[in-house]
Amino acid sequence: MPVTYRPGTSWTHIVWTVRGFMQVCAGAGFVDVGWGNAWTRWSVPVDVLRYIWAAAHPAGDVACIGVGADDHAYLVAGGSVFDQGLVIGQNPVGLYWSGDWVCVIQRPGDKTRPTYYTVGAVEHEFPPDIAGTSQGFRDVKPDGSIIFGDHAHVELVSGVVLHKPMTRGHMTVGQINGPDQIDGVIAGLHFASIPGPGFEPHVAWDGAQAYAVVARTGSGAAVNTHPPFPAVIDPPIDPPIDPPVETPVKLPNDVYNTLVALRPKYPTPLGDKGAALLNEVAWAHRSAGWGLEKKDGGTTCPQPRTGKTCGCDILRLTNLGWDVLGDAEGAGTPTQSDSGPADPARFVAPVEPTGVIPDPDPDPEDLDARVAALEAESSSQARTITELRAKVTQQGVQINDLTVRVLALENKPSGGLTPEQELNLARLDGLLSVLKTGFGTQNSFGHKHTVRWP
Question: What pLDDT score was predicted for residue 336?
C-alpha cells in the first residue's frame, strides 16, 4: 500500500485493487482514505493485485505495479495494463521512472525459488548471501537503487529499533514493538507517525520539507503527513549522531548445520511449520542462548507446545537476529545470513520439541470454564472416595464374620476337627490375613493353629 509524490501537484495514495479496478486517490485530503475523494479507476485483468508498488513521473503521472492471482506482475500506467510475466516470493516487484517506467521483478529459477531479478529487460543475479530470498525487495528508490528485504529486516536508527524500515530524504519509518505502531526518526528525533498496530510502512518525500507515511492496519489504510511530528517520544539528539552499529556476524556454522540437518523432517512447502523447525534448532543450541523472534502481526508461525506467534524465518540471540530461511512458507531453504540488530524484548526461549505445555497466562474468559471443570472433577473424586469407604466398611463386616467363624472352629474340643475342617480353617486363616492387609481393617484378631493329619 504505497504512497508517492506527484511533482508540482500533490501526494498520491495507491490503494489495494478491488473487483478488477486499480484505484488511485489524489489530493491533500487523502488522509481520510474514505471514499469521498476523487478516484481514478483503471481496469486491470485480475481481481486483486498484491504487493503493489507506485512511482511518479516527473510530469505528475503515477504508475503502479502489482502481482495478480496468476502470479504475474502487472504494470498499470496511463490507463493501460501490461503483463510483465511470472514472479515468485514476497514483495517481488518494484517500480521507478528513468526516461520510461522501469519494472524491478523477482523471477522464479531452479527449484521454484528466485535466483535472479530483472530491471527493465536486464537480468541480475541475487547477492550471493541471499539463497532464494524470503523477503524480496524492501525498497526500490526513485533513483533505481534496490534495498533487499533480507538485508534490511531491522535497522537501528538513533537508538530506535525499526522493523521493515524505509527511508526517504532525512526520515526513516518502520514498525516498532511496545507500543505496537509506526514510528519515524528524523534528525535524531523519534516520533509516532501512525498509532496502533501497522505493517510494512511506506514513506514519500516532496524533496523539501514535507513527508507522507502510509501503512496497512487491521482496519484498512492509514496515512499521515509530516510536519508536524506528533507525540515526541525521546528528546532530539543535538547534533544527531547515530550510535555505532555492530558489524554483522554470519550465522554460526554449528547452528546452520543443525538447521540443514533438521530441514528434511518438515514438509515442503513449509507453510506455518517454520517456527517448529527453528524451535527445534534453537532447542539443540539452547545452552548458547538461541531462541525465536516474537511477532504479533503479518505472517506468523506458532511455536510448538506454547502456540506463541513467532517469525517464521528468524533465529535469535538476545540482541541479534538472523533470517535463516529463504522462501519461508514455500521451499524453506536454509540460509547462512548475516546478523542484524534485534529487540531483546521480542526474544522467545525455545521449548522441548515434544509434548504439550499449558498456557501459563490463560485468557480471562477461559477461567470460568476451567474453574467449572475443576469443580466437576473435585465432585467426581469425592463420590469415588465415598464409594471406596463404603467398600472398606463392607469388607470390614466380612472380616468380622470370618473371624467369628474361625474362632468357632478353633474353640471346638481338641481332636474334634476332621482333616477337611482343619484344611478349611487354614484357608480361612489365609483369606483373613489378605483381607486385613488389603483393606486396612482395625480388627486385631490373630491366632495360630496346627493342621493335624490323620
Answer: 92
